[in-house]
Amino acid sequence: MKKYIYNILLAGLASVLIARAQTTTATGQLVDNTNAAVADTNVTTTTTTTVTTTATNTTVLPVDTNAVAAASTVTTNTTLVTTTTNTTVATTTDTNAPAAENIIPLIQFSDVPITTAIENLARQAGINYMLDPKIGYGQPDQNGQIKPEPTLSIRWENITAESALLALLDNYGLQLIVDKRTGIDRVATKDPLAPPPLITRVIQLQYASVSNLSLAVSSVLIDKRSRVIPDVRTSQMLIVATDPEQQSVDTLVAQLDKQTKQVLIETKLVEISSAPSAARGIDWSGTLAQQHVNFGNGSVSGANTITTPGPAVSSTVTSPGAGHKKITTVSSPPATIVGTLTQALGGGGWSAATTPGILPATAFLNSDGVSAVLSFLNSSFDAQVYSTPRVVTLDNEMAHIEVIRTFPILNISGGTANSGGSASVTYSNIGTMLDVTPRISANNNIWLSITPEVSSHFGDETVTQQGGTQGVSTTFTVPIFDRRKIVTQVMIPDGNTLVMGGLVQDNPNATYTKVPFLGDIPGLGWAFHSEAKNMTKDNLIIFLTPTIVRDADFQPAVSSFLQSKPRTMGEPMDPHHMWDGAEPRVEHDWNNPAPQPGEFNVPTVK
Q1: CA–CA separation, 93 vs 82, rounded Å?
Q2: Which of 302, 366, 494, 590 could form a disulfide with 346 if both were Cys (CB 3.0 to 4.6 A apart)?
Q3: How far apart are CA 18 and CA 69, in angstroms?
Q4: Which three-class secondary structure state does DSSP give residue 271?
């Protein structure tokens, strides 16, 4: 009896001390009473109360967070001080958020039994639990000795109640087994030989590619049982791993799953072409370069005879009509045509007979004649191609820009003895192509990998392929292309312009003709020589400006396309109408006439 009275007196004394501590905290120690407060260390010292406990009975005097103390001014969402045996827990309660998500400014235990600490933290975290009987605190073990309950002294700051509970259980070889079916978890001992349990989580990626990040996540999974399963469709990863590995995965994903920066690449392609030419003088190449002179065998004379073979043929035809008149036709009899053939040989031009009176008259002199070309003309050709393509690409991703024309190329394959040859057409890209790969550095400088390429059609060349065993040769026309290409890497500041030149093609040509000796006569030599000059010059200049795209550069576009309704169009014709339709109407269908009323009725037998 005295023991119970002693316990009641101690409980009353503890209640008075708790009320005084709460009044002191509410009047002098609170800094802010809006959903959070910081518990002062001095308050923790003054609210420590000693309560006598035994192994089977523990006196705990918590403060109800839903009630207002009679001797204090503590209100909702302010600092609550929960006092147990030699324990002070300063926590912040938010009625609008779950208890497991609240950060507790201070958790402190001093020589408290572990079951008491578990009970207090589980209540703060909102976890329903029960102890596994195999723990056996206060129960005899296999050797008949009472297993003592350990006590603990801790002081944690800025931590959730659930995290504190899990850390406490792990430190003392215990684990929390979650039972989602009943909602009551179980605190049990860990098997020291059992592997750590696997936890299955689904991580939703925001920016990174699932296939790329899965390889990085697999590198932090040490346990052989752990695995990562990517889902490309939803950009999610299924992580099956232990708890330490899950924490490493979260840290890795937080570092890698970030928004990729983008770069706006503005280019200006300026290609200037110039082709001046000049031709002056008199060109005697047509006369003196190759003159054909023929002597003898200038004409051939003779007689030719054409004979029509076969006998005469007669045919009779009766004309229609009342008189039935007969008409007989007789073919021409065999005939012989005799003529004289005279053919002149030679290339034309000037000719003179040298042997008149000689039979046959075949000897004469023949040549190509005299020709000259007078030139005195200058010509020029200038062209400029200007294009300004713009493209936005991700950081460290290649952007391809091309201004081209497709050129057809004929591919011919030879045949064999049992099969014929085949031909196909492929197309080659001719023009200007530019590949740019940007990479943004830490100081917003942009590293660029640039590959400009310029190609053009130079001409065609005829190639002859010798035949095989049959000796048949084949001639093909093969195109020839000019190609200019630069591969370089540069680093420039954001928003600056890079100018690239040097893609110049300069082809000067000069052709001279002169009659020997005559072309060197002073004054008169201009009539016996000529010159032709031309020059083809192409110059390509590339202006490249990379700019990092910021979030402020994106502007939402106002569009009503998704809310628009499709336009309905009336039927242009009615195929069933007698004006538009070609099908016969039922009442006028003679192939399938409509039955008359009562036509197929079965007569009744009287």
Answers
A1: 12
A2: 366
A3: 10
A4: strand
| Burial letters 90-115, b for 16+ CB under 10 A, else e | bbbbeeeeebeebebbbbbbbebbbb
Highest mean pLDDT among 57-71, 117-131, 337-351, 357-371: 117-131
Residue 287 exposed, middle or buried by CB count within 10 Å (0-12, 13-18, 19+)? middle
Structural contact between residues 274 and 333, judged by C-beta atoms closer than 8 angstroms: no
CB 508 within 8 A of CB 276: no
Q: Which residue has the tokens 């009047």?
A: 27
Nearest one of 243, 226, 228, 346 to 298, comparing CA atoms: 346
Do the beta carbons of residue 69 and residue 22 sit within 8 Å? yes
Could you please report the per-residue DSSP string of 460-494? Answer: EEEEEEPP-TT---EEEEEEEEEEEE--EEEEEET
250-279 pLDDT per residue, tens: 999 999 999 889 999 998 888 888 889 999
Query: Residue 14 corresponds to which amino acid?
Result: A
Is pLDDT at 587 greater than 60 in this prediction?
no
Distance CA 472, CA 464 (A): 11
